[in-house]
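Friendly challenge for the regulars: who can give me the structure tokens for this chain first? No prize, just bragging rights.
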Amino acid sequence: MKDDLFSLYDYNKWANARVIGSLRPFSPEEYTRELGGGWPSIRATFVHLAGATDAWAERFGGKDVTVLPTPEQVPAFEDAATLLQGAETKLDAFLATLAPEKTAGAFTWKNLKGEPKTAPFWAVLRHVVNHGTYHRGQISSMVKRVGGKAIATDMVVWGIEANEKGR
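First reply, four minutes later:
Bragging rights claimed.
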């Protein structure tokens, strides 16, 4: 079977773009409204998604990242969207140079507590996509709670679209 890594990252970018599009119409008040729960607002969740994606892109580039940006540091929606899209650009550049044998090895990084951690590189690479899926689901729920229309970001929807486009 063909390695699914590049397809997963294509899916991830597609899903992120759909979330960005669904959030763009919100007012600053709706974007920052405290809703309760694990992440208090759409902004807090989206900034976390953008910041964590960027952290992994930086880690894959050999940098230690032990702090994520806070919602106060990325207050505007467009700033968070730019951060996420910039992370995707870094990830695309990294993936273009990634040799298959490297994914079979281990990857070591420092977590947010500054502790060194090691895991199979293939698992870490796929974690980035899985993490995004988790938080996009949270954002979708929040979008509905503030009266918006959440857009589907399911992998199968991406697959249907990709199939229809002949990809």
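The longest strand covers residues 106-110. Residues 5-164 form a domain with the Four Helix Bundle (Hemerythrin (Met), subunit A) fold (CATH 1.20.120.450). Your move, everyone else.
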